[in-house]
Amino acid sequence: MTLKPILIHPDPRLKKACDPVSTFDKELAALTDDMLETMYDAPGIGLAAPQIGVMNRLIVMDCVKEEGGTPEPMALINPKVVWESEEQNVYEEGCLSIPGQYGDVERPKMVRVTWQDVTGAEKEQEFDALWATCVQHEIDHLDGKLFIDYLKPMRRQMITRKMQKYKRELARE
What's the pTM value of the predicted model, to 2 decimals? Predict the structure, then answer.
């Protein structure tokens, strides 16, 4: 397994819609393993392929955060929300591509998602609470949308400026 570098906002690749995955092979399985490894190492609860510069509709997630909890790693290929609850939830979201920045985002409390696994088999599941927020956040990445796009313009601009400064500092190191 290989840790992948995570793109930092602003990066034009984070604002592009991704292509569907059509080839289900060993390379895809290895990529999902690398993405899970990268996500756990970060540490985070979700990672979308465009965050590592791969412009395909692929996300990984694991929302088990309790100390001693059993990990539940998931790889969702070509995920799509097919139903969402009217009831909303607000979570303070963060993003591995926007380190150290957080904002309250309102999303449906429950969603039903269809996707394919690494073999191409069709899957469907309902997600609730944090899992629902996470899967929606990661699917947004596949459509070129970031959590800060839900924030007020001034806050979004402030975070973007902080990230530009952060990237300049990283470049100097």
Answer: 0.95
Report the pLDDT averaged over residues 38-54: 96
The 3-state DSSP class for residue 106 equals: strand
Q: What is the pLDDT confidence band of residue 35, given thresholds at 50, 70 and 90?
A: very high
Domain limits, the chain: 12-172
Closest to 91 measured CA to CA, from 60, 63, 58, 124: 63
CATH number, domain 12-172: 3.90.45.10
Across 20-56, b (16+ Cβ under 10 Å) vs e yields: ebeeeeeebeebbbbbbbbbbeeebbbbbbbbbebeb
- Taking only the tens place, the pLDDT of each residue in 100-110 is 999 999 999 99
C-alpha distances out from residue 71 to 74, 135, 145, Å: 10, 16, 27
The four Cα atoms 140, 30, 63, 16 give a dihedral, to 10 degrees, of -10
Q: Which of 27, 67, 87, 138 is catalytic?
A: 138
Please confirm, yes or no, whether 27 is among the known catalytic residues. no
